[in-house]
Amino acid sequence: MLNGQVQGWLCEMAGQIVGFASGDRDSGEMLVLAVLPEYEGRGIGKRLLTEVVSWLVSCGCPRIWLTANRSPSGRAYGFYRHCGWRPTGELVDGDEVLEYFTVSSAALPDKVTSPLELVDVNRDNWQQCAALSVTAAQQALFPCSVLGWIAESRFEPSFRLHGLSVDAQLIGFAVTGVDPEDGEHWLLAFVIDAPHQGQGFGRAGMQALLAYFSAQRACRRILLGHRPENLSAARLYASFGFVPLRETPQEIICSLQLPR
């Protein structure tokens, strides 16, 4: 976070900062997107673009825009077109012609084209689920592995394990449960496998899980928790309407009231 108006994101690989992006929530402008040349073509730019656009959408920006050099040597122009942005005007700045781009929610760079479905975790697929993992940088934010959740579920009858499947491939994992003492419904764990991050599966998975909770007639609200430093999770949950309920130094508990 740079300040309350502008937010920035860094991409780090092997201890080196390889990309940076920022956006302005007041104007809806994508301010900066930069990736080191030797790391181009690895999906870093698209991942950073997705983070900024998702944040601007969650802030309620009615119009998201940026400018890019339209010269033949300006590769950014083709990149934004490929990601679903469309030219809407131009600005002449000295010898440069800058093209205005806007993006609609139907063309967000994190749009998932294949349907995602929840599948039960069973004896046939539990090992595939156990192999799912977040990135090395994220492991401090997820203290319990997928295998740990599977093991704990053997002693917690209220836990339900879900695989997140796209085209018959498991790309994520979630745990839901009902507190036996107060009947509250919880999203206890939500993981997108590292190779599949930055492709919109987090948002698609949350949509599938919200549909699952909504189908439970006794569910009036959903609770979840995340580490305070897990800003990506905080932005994702906020974009679906989750609001902070209480906070400790180790965890922020958020809730979403379901319409009934």
What does it look like?
It holds the Pfam family Acetyltransf_1. Residues 1-104, 116-259 form the N-acetyltransferase domain. There is one protein chain. The chain folds into 2 domains: 6-107, Gcn5-related N-acetyltransferase (GNAT) (Aminopeptidase), CATH 3.40.630.30; 116-257, Aminopeptidase (3-Layer(aba) Sandwich), CATH 3.40.630.30. The chain is built from 6 helices and 13 strands. The protein has helices spanning 44-58, 75-82, 126-130, 146-153, 201-214, 231-239; strands at 6-13, 16-24, 29-35, 64-69, 86-93, 96-103, 116-120, 159-166, 169-178, 185-192, 221-226, 243-247, 252-257. Strands 7-8-9-10-11-13-12 form a 7-stranded mixed beta sheet. A hairpin with a 4-residue loop joins strand 12 (243-247) and strand 13. It is globular. The two termini are 36 Å apart. Mean pLDDT is 83; it is low at 104-112.
Strand-helix topology:
Blueprint: E1 6-13, E2 16-24, E3 29-35, H1 44-58, E4 64-69, H2 75-82, E5 86-93, E6 96-103, E7 116-120, H3 126-130, H4 146-153, E8 159-166, E9 169-178, E10 185-192, H5 201-214, E11 221-226, H6 231-239, E12 243-247, E13 252-257
Parallel strand pairs: 10-11
Antiparallel strand pairs: 1-2, 2-3, 4-6, 5-6, 7-8, 8-9, 9-10, 11-13, 12-13
Helix pairs in contact: 1-6
GO molecular function, one term: acyltransferase activity, transferring groups other than amino-acyl groups
Protein name: Acetyltransferase (GNAT) family protein
Domain N-acetyltransferase: 1-104, 116-259
